[in-house]
Specification:
This protein is an alpha/beta fold and about 375 residues long. The protein contains 10 helices and 20 strands.
Length: about 375
């Protein structure tokens, strides 16, 4: 095991300025020269793999540190002391082998690009005392699947999750009042987003062109939407440097219903006719179902949604089976006007999926309608 740690003491606090070593697990000290270690400096692990025998601690001038390496850091496992409250810019940038990291509970400041290029990082929880997520904080973290944001977070910097292609869902707390541009640029697998009304929804949606399950927490309720994906291409119309954009799918229009701090519900409902033509029945049924199940400010579109969702109940049941959503099944039985024939078919569909619980509940609902023939199901 061999690590070289450069540090500096000032005003009774120790700052770790630069770390380099052979990639073995590293535990940073809580104190140096009797002073608590409170910060990690900019590019702290950007020194690459220096050669040396055994661990070394070097008191260093912040202006005369060893040069940064052009290669990725060999760091794979790190334990930070609870005394750390500040992490500098690019402190862990290009630590491509670092998979997980527990941040100190007392951390209050994170520098820009702190985890940029941590290509193996899979999940992380940001401590409650952190109010600002800096620019490019997790950019290029291509395996990052889950991030838990602090409940009192106030700002989210631009491109904070740029190219986080494995990120699947994110919940933004109510306290956030500013989000930067390009926050989710190239987050092509982000399929579920929860946020408060008042944050700049239109900026966030501008980066997300694939299917999106969107939940908006409003002052007096919760609205949930399914926004279909869309694609586009540029067509040359022959004039010099003149292009025309051709858009496929209704998803772009649906996204235009969300302004910086508001939602145009009437406009959203008006696009359902287009969705029935542009999207598959499964997608259109999901659009209708989300509005029926979470009917916040649902008005004139209710009857159209009911008719379409009931006619495509099989597509909805497939979704509920996939998600193992028992509460959703109960909601579907309560909300949709399902006939006995439809319930029979849904029971067979649940049987084919091997879901005994769903079959039992659907049979119970069928019996409640009366007049049905006895059926045998192989469970």
């Amino acid at each position: 095991m061999s690590w070289t740690i450069c540090y500096n003491i000032a005003h009774g606090e120790a700052a770790i300025l630069r770390c380099a070593g052979d990639g073995s697990p590293l535990t940073l000290p809580e104190t140096l020269e009797g002073c608590p270690v409170t910060s990690l400096g900019p590019n702290c692990f950007g020194g690459g793999a220096w050669t040396g025998e055994g661990d070394r601690l070097i008191a260093a001038d912040p202006e005369q540190l060893p040069p940064l390496s052009r290669s990725d850091s060999p760091l794979t496992r790190l334990t930070l002391p609870d005394t750390v409250t500040r992490i500098g810019e690019r402190a862990f940038a290009r630590c491509s082998g670092l998979k997980r990291l527990v941040l100190p509970a007392g951390l209050t400041r994170l520098g820009a690009r702190a985890f940029e290029g941590c290509g193996s990082l899979e999940r992380i929880r940001l401590p409650e005392g952190l109010a600002d997520l800096p620019d490019y904080a997790f950019s290029q973290c291509r395996r990052l699947e889950r991030v838990l944001l602090p409940s009192q977070l106030e700002t989210m910097g631009s491109h904070a999750f740029y190219n986080c292609v494995a990120l699947k869902e994110l919940t933004i707390p109510d306290t956030v009042h500013f989000v930067g541009g390009g926050l989710f640029l190239n987050c092509k697998n982000l399929s579920r987003l929860t946020l408060p009304l008042g944050v700049n929804i239109s900026v966030l949606l501008s980066d997300l062109s694939d299917d999106l399950d969107l939940t908006v927490r409003c002052p007096d309720g919760v609205a949930r939407f399914f926004l279909p994906g869309f694609s586009y291409e540029y067509e040359d119309i022959n004039a010099p440097r003149m292009w025309r954009t051709i858009t496929y799918g209704s998803g772009q229009l649906y996204r235009e219903c969300f302004s910086s701090r508001d939602i145009d519900f009437d406009l959203y409902e008006s696009y359902f006719d287009l969705a029935r033509k542009e999207e598959t029945p499964a997608v259109a049924a999901r659009i209708a179902w989300y509005r029926l199940r979470w009917p916040y400010h649902l008005g004139k579109g209710r009857e159209d949604y009911l008719t379409y969702a009931a006619a495509h109940a099989g597509a909805l049941l497939a979704l509920l089976l996939e998600q193992e959503d028992v509460e959703g099944l109960e909601a579907m039985l309560e909300i949709l006007p399902l006939t006995g024939e439809t319930l029979d078919e849904l029971s067979r569909q649940a049987e084919r999926a091997g879901n005994v619980r769903f079959v039992s509940r659907l049979l119970e609902a069928r019996m409640g309608l009366g007049g049905g023939a006895d059926r045998e199901f192989d469970l």
